[in-house]
Amino acid sequence: MNTASRRRRWTAAFAALLVPLTCSCKHIHTEVVIDAPSAAVWEVLRDTDAYPAWNPYHVRVDGVLAEGERLEVEVHKPNGNELVIHPRVEVLEAERELTWGGGVPGVFVGHHVFRLVPLPGDRTRLIHTEVFRGIAVPFAELDTIEAGYEQVNRALAERVESRQREAAL
């Protein structure tokens, strides 16, 4: 085998290993319909000081909820693991979307989205997603995040709907 042939084989082998790592991503998608208008859902979602009272996953969010600002978010995963992350607020559109994210580009980046979609009958669909990208994604502990987001969705719906019931009395 000549040098050019070996080089082509080595390049192909390297590319076969590198491409899956650099293109690694994980998508998490959850949804819930909440029996309340988007304004009521947004009021609870943006009140990060109250998260310890109702949010089982994002148990603490410190910082100013404004685009470009850095937050400190304490996460308690369903498997018992805990961590603190420091994302930036990327999108803050009243009654529509809250997105925070961050990381090291190419290595590990996440974008966490809460999107509110108004529905007929004063109801709201929460689309709660996250996309992770980077070479470290296959090695990150991401297997319990979807279950955690489902917990957040249920807890948010319960809190908003109970406030709506109390307001109606």
Question: Would you mind describing this structure in some detail?
Answer:
The protein has 169 residues and is of the alpha+beta class. The chain has a single domain (24-168), classed as Alpha-D-Glucose-1,6-Bisphosphate, Chain A, domain 4 (2-Layer Sandwich), CATH 3.30.530.20. The chain contains 4 helices and 8 strands; from the N terminus they run H-E-H-H-E-E-E-E-E-E-E-H. It has helices spanning 3-22, 38-46, 51-54, 145-168; strands at residues 25-34, 58-62, 72-76, 82-85, 88-93, 97-104, 108-119, 123-133. It has a 5-stranded antiparallel β-sheet with strand order 1-8-7-6-5, with helices on one face. The longest helix is centred in the C-terminal third of the chain and has 24 residues, at 145-168. The termini are far apart. The mean pLDDT is 92.
Cα distance spanning the termini: 84 Å
Q: Structural class, from secondary structure content? A: alpha+beta
Helix content: 25-40%
- Per DSSP E runs of 2 or more residues, the count of β-strands stands at 8
Side by side, the strands of the main sheet go: 1-8-7-6-5
Main β-sheet, in a few words? 5 strands, antiparallel
Q: Secondary-structure element sequence?
A: HEHHEEEEEEEH
CATH class: Alpha Beta
* Spans of at least 5 consecutive residues with low confidence: none
Fold-level CATH name: Alpha-D-Glucose-1,6-Bisphosphate, Chain A, domain 4
Q: Could you tell me the strand content as a percent range? A: 35-45%
Question: What is the CATH architecture term?
Answer: 2-Layer Sandwich
Mean pLDDT: 92
Radius of gyration: 20 Å
Q: Structurally, how many domains make up the residues?
A: 1
Global geometry: elongated
Q: How many helices does DSSP assign?
A: 4
CATH superfamily, by name, is START domain
